[in-house]
Amino acid sequence: MSSSVLSTTAPFRAAARQKYFPLAIRAYSGVAASRLHPSHSKQVTPVAYAYVSKRSISSTQQNRTEEYFPSPETPGVKEVQAWAHPVYTVEQMRNVAVAHRDARNWSDKVALGTMRVFRWGMDFVTGYKHPRPEAKHPERFNLTPKQWMNRFIFLESVAGVPGMVGGMLRHLHSLRRMKRDNGWIETLLEEAFNERMHLLTFLKMAEPGWLMRLMVLGAQGVFFNGFFLSYLISPRICHRFVGYLEEEAVITYSRVIKDMENGQLPEWDNLEAPDIAVRYWKMPEGNRKMKDLILYIRADEAKHREVNHTLGNLDQKGDPNPYMTEYKDPTKDHPTEGIENLRATGWERDEIFFKPQEQK
């Protein structure tokens, strides 16, 4: 078969300090070799493993770091600031748990059924399957680090679509009605930004090949248009759908963490999180390994799970966004931007907008 179709090399970039990012590590028949970026004058010892691939799904043949992360060229500009992220504690992230909200009406059932079809397609493309509780997982579904990275990149490239579509449509609706949106736009756009930061972080660690790029292009085109039309018809079902989708994301990342704790992914034991992740999540010293990175990302997905289930419980036209609201009684528990008051299945409307007791 032509070498232009299938690649026999697979670079896996070092997720270490910034000066190591230009390195690409390749494996040829099990022998590792490193390619030095032209800007470096000396050979640098690689700090990550190399993987051999016979498919084009997961890696390119060139190191294209500068294409994904171009340096600012405007005179006087040092760095472009990212959207600020809430600070999570280690205890809060470890307390994140797998959870499921039962379908309570026909719209929930529509959202859940659609999500299951969507997840089946994702699993089929990435060769993944959720293990059943207390059951031995088939060997063919035990993913390697390279396969996990394929799944991460594919999922996160699609996960940033719902928040952007919802925020865009609500923005346009607000302009047409000439009325404010009561805070929904900000939260939805921030969710889309957060999912994109997940993708950019993984792109610092592995480069997608032409087949993966093609799948992302097709999936994004179909999903964007489908979600766009669905949000016009029923925003409530769309938020419930995303809530169920984020439940699956929490399961996926929880399984990765379990695999790492069980020693099934030794290549990631000492892998450092990229600088882009350290800055965005404000990762403290001593908590900047690959496992710590997955904990942060899982916590984000758990927050998206809560946010979308909560938004799905509200009046889509009249209620303000509870995550952008200042409450009259600060002593009561309310939704927050962080995960200190995390509700896995979302906040019910009467838990948020309750009537204060009359003073005697």
Architecture overview:
The termini are far apart. The longest helix is centred in the last third of the chain and has 27 residues, at 235-261. This protein has helices at 65-68, 90-94, 106-126, 145-159, 161-177, 184-203, 210-233, 235-261, 275-281, 290-312, 349-352, and strands spanning 24-28, 31-35. The protein has a single domain, classed as Alternative oxidase (Ferritin, Up-down Bundle), CATH 1.20.1260. It is mainly α. α8 (235-261) runs antiparallel to α10. Helices cover 46% and strands 3% of the residues. It has a two-stranded antiparallel ribbon. InterPro entries: AOX (IPR002680), AOX_sf (IPR038659). Its EC number is 1.-.-.-.
Task: Quickly describe the structure.
Helix content is 46%, strand content 3%.
Output the radius of gyration. Answer: 22 Å
Shape: globular
Largest sheet: 2 strands, antiparallel
Say what the CATH topology is.
Ferritin
The CATH architecture designation is Up-down Bundle
Strand percent estimate: under 5%
Order of helices and strands: EEHHHHHHHHHHH
**End-to-end distance, in Å?**
84 Å
The total number of structural domains is 1
The chain-level mean pLDDT equals: 79
How many strands?
2
Number of helices: 11
Structural class: mainly alpha
Strand order of the main beta sheet, please? Answer: 1-2
Low-confidence stretches: 1-62
The CATH top-level class label? Mainly Alpha
**What share of the residues lie within helices?**
40-55%
Within CATH, the superfamily carries the name Alternative oxidase
GO cellular component, one term: mitochondrial inner membrane
Enzyme class: oxidoreductase
Pfam family, one: AOX
Binding site for Fe cation 1: 156, 195, 198, 301
